[in-house]
Amino acid sequence: MKLQRKNRLRATALGVIAVSSALALTACGSDDNDKGSSSTGGTGKTSAASNIKCDGAKGQLLASGSSAQKNAMDLWVKNYMAACKGVEINYKSSSSGEGIIAFNQSQVGFAGSDSPLKPEEVANSKKVCAGGGQGINLPMVGGPIAIGYHLEGVDSLVLDAPTIAKIFNGKIKNWNDEAIAKLNSGAKLPDKAIQAFHRSQDSGTTQNLGKYLGATAKADWPYPAEKKWPAPGGQAAAGSSDVAAQVKQTDGAIGYFELSYATAQSIKTVDINTGAAAPVKATSENASKAIAAAKIKGTGKDLALGLDYTTKADGAYPLVLVTYEIACDKGNKADTLGTVKSFLTYTSGDEGQKILSDAGYAPIPAEINAKVRETVAGLQ
Question: The whole model's pTM is what?
């Protein structure tokens, strides 16, 4: 009897300790299990752990589009939801084309796109942006489009624009081709077939690759810069993550995707011979040098950028993209406007932009970003 009584007392004591520990952990909270424990959403208060303002934010915000910015968006959403209690940002990573369609069908509060809206897409947006509003381009994420490859025994690879064009349109079929060997003196290139992977659905990343090749290798890339893959041959995969996965697992493969995907999966990337003093590596810093020369070509509140793909500046990586968030300049839905403004204020702010470099992206140049913040603040 005495032994049973001691066991009961011991069990009770352990239970108290366990409950106390659970309460302590709950009080501390975590980003994964207690989103928003450090702030009260929709009250205008600022998170104790950050400068994220939750002014007017409430409920659920649906968004979709570019998979190029997925890794940045994942970080932003996690941080924002940790700060703004009761607010849910649901970003579906698909493609730029699908995101714009969803936006123009009034299915999402904003869309992500790797290319600015076309005139016909702007015209369609006027049907969903009330009061004479229209969709505008807000540059939010910059970064290099990496040419990733998997070639056993080859740890460093240099290509130029004409060679990249010939690889992706099937004119160069083998890794020991003379054009590749000439750019990689001393490298032991295997007699192995090239397996080139491209995006299967409409993609802004594809369009930006097309713009680069059209500007720098027109004779070898005679295709219009569209979101749909234009060249014959090759193998298709759904999103940037799928293209990267195929390259990762296939010896002899090459593909294109944002640097963050190469970094996450330890995929080797091509250095590009631009005609500068030395081939340029795909890094956030080098992409920033190229994006810094961009000019705003949009009018009014639209901030679409013009990029110089032909730069030969030392250390400037020319194959870059800028991802835009697409929103109505006015006529946004009343129930999501506060959340859209709050979230995009964070992503375009110092805190949101600062995390981009660590994730393999490049922040938007300060002068342009200042206009983005001003425009976001004025969304109606």
Answer: 0.78
Residue 9 placed within a domain:
no
Q: pLDDT digit of tens for each residue in the chain (380 aa)?
A: 433 433 443 443 334 333 333 333 333 323 332 333 333 333 344 443 478 999 999 999 999 999 989 999 999 999 999 999 999 999 999 999 999 999 999 999 999 999 999 999 999 999 999 999 999 999 999 999 999 999 999 999 999 999 999 999 999 999 999 999 999 999 999 999 999 999 998 888 999 999 999 999 999 999 999 999 999 999 999 989 999 999 999 999 999 999 989 999 999 999 999 999 999 999 999 999 999 999 999 999 999 999 999 999 999 999 999 999 999 999 999 999 999 999 999 999 999 999 998 888 999 999 999 999 999 999 99
Structure tokens at 131: 């009061």
Q: Work out the angle at residue 357's Cα, subtended by the Cα atoms of residues 78 and 370, and round it to the nearest 5 degrees.
A: 85
DSSP 127-167: TTSTTT--EEEEEEEEEEEEEEEE-TT----EEEHHHHHHH
Same domain, 300 and 346: yes
- What distance in Å separates the CA atoms of residue 233 and residue 165, rounded to the nearest whole number? 13
Alpha-helical (H) ranges within 250-280 are: 259-265
- Asked whether residue 49 is domain-assigned, the answer is no
Rg of the chain on CA atoms, in Å:
24
340 lies in the same domain as 355: yes
Structural domain including 271 reads: 144-291
Number of domains in the chain: 2
CATH of the domain at 348: 3.40.190.10
Question: Do 72 and 137 sit in the same domain of this protein?
Answer: yes
